[in-house]
Amino acid sequence: MSTIRRSYAIFKESLQVLAKDKEILLFPLLSGIVTMVAFLSIVSAGVASGVFEHFDKHDPLNYAVAFVWYFISWFIVLFFNVAVIHCAAIRLRGGDPTVADGFRASMQHIGRIAAWALVSATVGVILRFLADRASFIGKIIVGLLGAAWSIATYFIVPVMIFEKRTLRDSVAQSTQLIAKTWGESLIAAGGIGAFIMLLAVGGLIVPMVALLINPMAALIALGVVVVYWLALSIMSAALTGIFRTALYLYATEGRTPAGFSPEYVQNAFVAKKSRGLFAASRA
What is the pTM of this model? Predict the structure, then answer.
């Protein structure tokens, strides 16, 4: 119950920070739009060229196309994530960010964004290659490896843009920060997704009630709910970026960012086995 309460408090405080800078929502919105345009462009090119007609599960061309898509999609997501995290950091340090600040930061780090997109695409293709050739147990192992990679690189974007480290050092630093926060911070971050999911499920009530009126009303209500879900997805991305930035700033600067309660952020950054040691060191 304490974890649920803490997760809800973090969700609410992240939402309050977002309310001060609603323009941050523009970045995940654009990320989704650009990603969709890129996806449709690749599909159209594949269909027009006839490439997709010759696909085979183990065909090298399959992995080449997958690599291109992974790189493009990761580049787009990272570009706008950098903008979200940079603007969140300005707000959490007491400033007042603008959309221009976000785009400026992304352009300044475009080389690092491209390099990390290349690494992510490479890892993605390797994991897919292994999964395609693995047994059922092997697929589970590959899935766990992918999850471990995602966890280890949880802080990669703020480390990359604020500390300007090499890619290798950025991964190492992100892993060290995760080691400090293992368990509690991930549960708290997952809490944002959990509350968004509850709101998403709650939206199903509308078409269910509309179905009692007539099928057309239910269809219209379902369309409204889809738009509602898209809005929740955009908000979720923004809130996750804000909270991730708050955790990173606390870990590196040793103070609770503006807008967050010290008890929630500090608890997230105290490993369970070392809680007494950390508490003593702060006393």
Answer: 0.82
